[in-house]
Design brief:
This protein is an all-alpha fold. It has a domain of 53 residues. The longest helix has 35 residues. The radius of gyration is 18 Å and the shape is elongated.
Length: 81
């Protein structure tokens, strides 16, 4: 039976992304390594964004079930569109 790959925790992904950014900003990596780090970073950003959307949906469901209000996206606190 194939072993299922564990989904990294949000914080682990964020830490890895921060490390990649630090290495890229130092500017000491060869071009090919920099490109690989950038591609990995973009993949992490996509994964983290998807994870945040999943979490937001779960929180909305929990709030709705408890009779609370739904969340307002960051930057929309005043309710203007």
């Amino acid at each position: 039976m194939a072993k299922r790959e564990r989904t990294p925790r949000f914080e682990e992904g964020l830490n890895e992304l921060e490390g990649l950014v630090r290495r890229l900003e130092e500017g000491e990596m060869p071009l090919e390594d920099s490109l690989e780090a950038f591609e990995r970073g973009m993949k992490i950003v996509k994964t983290l964004g998807e994870r945040l959307l999943e979490i937001e949906k779960r929180v909305d469901v929990l709030l709705e079930k408890s009779g609370g209000t739904t969340l307002v996206p960051a930057g929309d606190e005043d309710g203007d569109d």
